[in-house]
Amino acid sequence: MYLTRDEEKAIKGESGETTALAYRILLAIGEATDAEKLVPIEWAHVSGVNYNTIGDAGVRFLEEFSKDAKTSVKTTINPMGFDRRRIQDLPDERFVFKQMTIVKSYERIGAIPSFTCIPYEIFDIPPKGTIISFSESNAAVFSNSLLGLLTNKESALSALASSVIGKTPYSDLRIDSFRHPKIAIKPTFDLSTELDYGLLGYFAGKVVSESCVAFDGLDGNPSLVKSKALCAGIGTSGSCGMYTMSKNHCCKEVISCGREEINTIKGELNTSEDGDVIALGSPQLGMDELNLISKLIEHKKFTKRCMIFCPRSISMQATMSGITKNIEKAGGEFICDSCICLTPLITKENADSVITNSVKAAYYLNHSNKLTVALKDLKNIIVDYTEAR
């Protein structure tokens, strides 16, 4: 990989060991992905914030790294394990201590304490063609596919290194030729709910190992809610980081996806017929989902605990518009700074099974939290688990 003279000096440690480490991380990734050079980025979004995600080794690394490291570009970060303003919800003092140590490390290097997995709904979007470095999978897929931004599906470590250096390897989905799919998925069933889109995305991620996939015959303008579900599904099940939608694609291989395939995918994730608690927000909910929930639960109340995960900035907007009051009146419980995935707020101690409309949440609840999942679309959740008030 070509390096400038200044980059070579930095790798040798002339700008400090932390900078050298960040460069070495990017150099290793660049060589592994056949990058020809490093290119500037304008925005980094870093995962690896939840203590359950990075563990003690990650805590120690961030503490050491943050002693000297400083971000050189706008850097936002993924959700943490709990709501900072509701620490009493988590009696595990050790988890709280470890989590806040992680938060302090990110704040020390200059990251914005956004605690969101949907930065594309909160921050100003740069022009199409802008190179970024996103390690949250749904955000990477969404940014490539719907916003025209250029990012690979980064690891937490590579996005962190890019946040400090302000550069990233020029490879894969940052190069135009890789953004043209070779394989298309052709849905042969009616997609009517956000869950259908999430399952389709999960199927695509499983069967396509290429960086980009096409959808043949898919509605050209799905709602934001359905688009988020599609991106999250793709990001959860494989390495694919982008999709396109066109009937006029040039793909030589077309894979059909019918109701049988979707039912098979759902069968893997839907491991219970019912649940003890409702969890909504993986990816975190934005204003579109909250508006929809508010309308659906008008004059109703939840018959089970309903946990609603959303960014704090979205929660503030919802409060100003009266949505928060309406949902809380129905029994909805807002949780900010966190999301369903790997959360310590939902464990075997307080639930055996969880009801959700999220394919991504279902995957992590099953595999990481070791809970069973009742996977239903949002409208059916409201029908099944509310009553008149």
Describe the fold and architecture:
- The chain is an alpha/beta fold.
- The chain folds into three domains: 5-171, Aconitase, domain 3, CATH 3.30.499; 180-267, no CATH class; 270-388, Aconitase, domain 3 (2-Layer Sandwich).
- The protein is built from 14 helices and 16 strands.
- The strands form five sheets. It has a five-stranded parallel sheet. The protein has a four-stranded parallel sheet with strand order 8-7-6-9. A three-stranded parallel sheet has the order 3-2-4.
- Helix 3 (51-65) packs across helix 4 and helix 10 (287-296) packs across helix 12.
- The chain is globular and about 70 Å long.
- It starts with a helix and ends with a strand.
- The model has no long low-confidence stretch (mean pLDDT 96).
* Separate helix tally: 14
CATH architecture of the largest domain: 2-Layer Sandwich
How many β-strand runs? 16
- Element order: H for helix, E for strand: HHEEHEHEHHEEHEHEEHEHEEHHEEHEHE
List keywords for this structure.
389 residues; alpha/beta; Aconitase, domain 3; five-stranded parallel beta sheet; four-stranded parallel beta sheet; 40% helix; 16% strand; globular
Short description:
The chain has 389 residues and is of the alpha/beta class.
Please specify the SSE layout and strand pairing:
Elements: H1 5-11, H2 17-32, E1 38-40, E2 43-46, H3 51-65, E3 74-77, H4 93-109, E4 133-134, H5 137-146, H6 156-165, E5 167-169, E6 183-187, H7 194-207, E7 212-215, H8 224-237, E8 242-245, E9 253-257, H9 259-269, E10 277-280, H10 287-296, E11 300-302, E12 305-309, H11 312-321, H12 323-329, E13 332-335, E14 353-356, H13 359-367, E15 372-375, H14 378-384, E16 386-388
Parallel strand pairs: 2-3, 2-4, 6-7, 6-9, 7-8, 10-12, 10-14, 12-13, 14-15
Antiparallel strand pairs: 1-5, 11-16
